[in-house]
Amino acid sequence: MDMNEREKRLRQKQAQRRKNVLIMKCIISLLILIVVFLAVVLIKDAVIPGVKKQEENTKKQQQEAQADAGGSVTADQTESTEGSGSTEDQLLAAADVMAAQYDYDGAIQSLQASSLYTNSQKMQDAVTGYQQVKATCTAYPLEQITHVFFHTMIKDPSKAFDGDAKEAGYNQVMTTMSEFTGIMESMYEKGYVMVSLHDMCTVNADGTVSSGEILLPPGKIPFVLSQDDVSYYHYMDGDGFAQKLIVDENGDVKNTYVEDDGSISVGDYDMVPWIDTFVKEHPDFSYHGHKGIIALTGYEGVLGYRTDEVYRTKEASRVTEYQQKFFDEHPDFDEAAWQKEVDDATNVANTMKAEGWEFASHTWGHIAPQTVGLEAMQKDTQRWLDNVAPVVGDTDVIIFAFGADIGDWQPYTDANPFFTYLKGKGFNIFCNVDSTQYWVQFGSNYMRQGRRNLDGYRMYYNPDMLSDLFDVSSVWDKSRPTPVPQM
To answer: Which of 362, 348, 335 is nearest to 391 (CA)?
Structure first.
C-alpha cells in the first residue's frame, strides 16, 4: 500500500470519529432537554397554584391600600392591567390613572403602601414624578369656576325637529349629541377639567360651610357639569331621545334607544354614557374621578324608570294624561312591575355613583318655589325625599327648576323661609341659572353657584358669551331649524 492510500484511509477514519462524536453530543443534548422539560412540568404542577394565590393576595392588598389612601381602582382599570406584566406594573398603571386625575397624594400613597415599594426603582421613580408634578399645582380661585348645564340630548334631530308643536321647545333648550360632542371635545382641548360641587366647599358637622380647595397644574381649568331632567319623560317618546339608562353586560351605564322598527339599540346616546366613555380614554378630563351632577325631578320617575308612587297607586286625581296613556299601553303594570322599575333604577344610580356621578334635587314637580309658595314647595320637597332619594340616595344639592332661585343675588339669610326650610331638610348647595361666565357665593352655611345653559337658544343668540368654552360655528348642528324661537 503506497503512502497516498494510507493517508486517504487515515483521513476517512478521522472523519468517521468526528461524526460519531457529533452524533453522541446530539443524543446527550436531547436527553438533557427531555430531563429539563419533565422537571418544568413537575415544578409547574407543584408551584403555580401557590403563585396564583399570591397574585390574588397581592391584588387584594393593592386595592385595600388604595382605598385607605382615598383612591379607588375601577373594574375597567383593573382589567386594563390584567396580563400586562407583574403586580408592580398593575400598581403603577392604577397609580398613573389616579395621578392623571390630579390625585397625586392618592397615587403616591397607593405605591408606598405596597410591600414591593422598597425594592422597586420603577415605583420610587413614579412617586418622584408625581411629587414633581404636584409641586407645580396651585389652588384655583373658586369664584372663577364656571358651571355649564344641558338638558336631555337629542340623538336623532330629524325626529325632534319634525315641525310638530314640541319642536320649538326642543330647539330652545335642548342640545344635539353632535353639538354636545363638539362642545366637550373643545373644552377638553382648552384644558377644562370636571370637578364636583363638593370639591368647591366643605360642609362641616355643625352645618357651616367652608371653602374647598382645588389644586391643578398650570393650564388646567376646573368646571362643574350638570344635566337636568334625566327622566326621559313620556312626552319625548318617538322624538329622537334615548329611552332610559341601563347597566349593560359589561357593568357600564349605557342608553337604550327604540329604533323605527321597534328594536332596541344600546349605546352612548346621552350625556352620562358619553362622558363615561370619554373619561376612560381621557382620564385627565376628570378631577379625582369626579364627573357631572344629575338634577332629577320625580313626577314621572327617574333615569327612564317609572318609579314615582303614582305608578304604584294609580291615584286617579294625580294621574296625568301621559301617565294614563302609559297605563293603557301597559295594562299589566302592577305593583311588582313598579318594584322592578325601582330596583333597576337603583342599580343604575348606584353604578353611576361608583363611576363618579352625583345627584341633585330639581324639585319633584319641576316647580319655581317662589311662584308656587312656601307650603307647596314644602309638599313638593317631601315628595322628592320620599320618592327620589330612596332610589338615588341622599343629596345636599338643589338645582332649581327654571333656574328660579329662592332669592335675588343678595346672600341668603334666616329671614328667608324658603332657605331655612330647605337648609333644615339638609340642602347646603343651591344652583340657579346665571348666564355670566361664573357666579359663586359663599354664606356661612351654604354655597350658591350660577349655571350657564349650553342650548340652542344660547348658542344662536349669544355665541360670544360661550367663546371661552368653544366656537359655536364649529359645533352647530346644521339640522337645527333657524331662527331658534325666542323664549
So the answer is: 348
Residue 88 vs residues 113, 119, 121, 231, 333: alpha-carbon distances, Å: 12, 11, 10, 44, 53
Rounded to a whole number of angstroms, the CA Rg of the chain reads 31
Find cell 396651585 and name the residue.
138
The yes-or-no verdict on residue 327 having pLDDT over 50 is: yes
Distance in angstroms (rounded) separating the CA atoms of residues 360 and 228: 9
* Grid cell locating 165: 308643536
Q: How many CB atoms lie within 10 A of CB 282?
A: 13
The pTM (predicted TM-score) of the whole model is 0.82
The residues facing 257 across adjacent strands are 265
Q: Which residues pair with 286 in a beta bridge?
A: 194
Cβ–Cβ under 8 Å, residues 309 and 338: no
Q: Higher confidence at residue 399 or residue 62?
A: 399
- CB contact set of 172 (below 8 Å; sequence gap of 6+): 455, 456, 457, 484, 485, 487
Give the residue among 213, 369, 377, 392 at the shortest CA–CA distance from 301.
Answer: 392
Q: How far apart are CA 132 and CA 130, in angstroms?
A: 5
* Residue 309 pLDDT > 80: yes
The answer to whether 447 and 440 are in contact (CB under 8 A) is yes
Give me the phi and psi of 358, to 5 degrees please.
-125, 165
| Nearest-10 crossing angle of helices 104-112, 3-68 | 120
Report residue 470 CA to chain centroid gap. 22
User: Using CA atoms, how far apart are residues 308 and 297, in angstroms rounded to an integer?
Assistant: 10
Quickly list DSSP for 388-404: THHHH----EEE-GGG-
Measured distance between the N- and C-terminal CA atoms of the chain, rounded to whole angstroms? 123
Under a CB-based contact definition with an 8 Å cutoff, are residues 90 and 59 in contact?
yes
Burial code (b: 16+ CB inside 10 Å, e: under 16) for 66-81 equals beebebbbbeebeebb
C-beta separation of 131 from 212 below 8 A? no
Single-letter amino acid code for the residue at 52? K
What gap in Å lies between CA 257 and CA 206, rounded to an integer? 46
* Mean pLDDT of the region 315-327: 95
User: Residue 244 phi/psi, 5° resolution?
Assistant: -170, 180
Q: Is it the case that residue 40 has pLDDT exceeding 50?
A: no
Query: What CA–CA distance (Å, rounded) separates 277 from 223?
Result: 19
Chain centre to alpha carbon of residue 323: 31
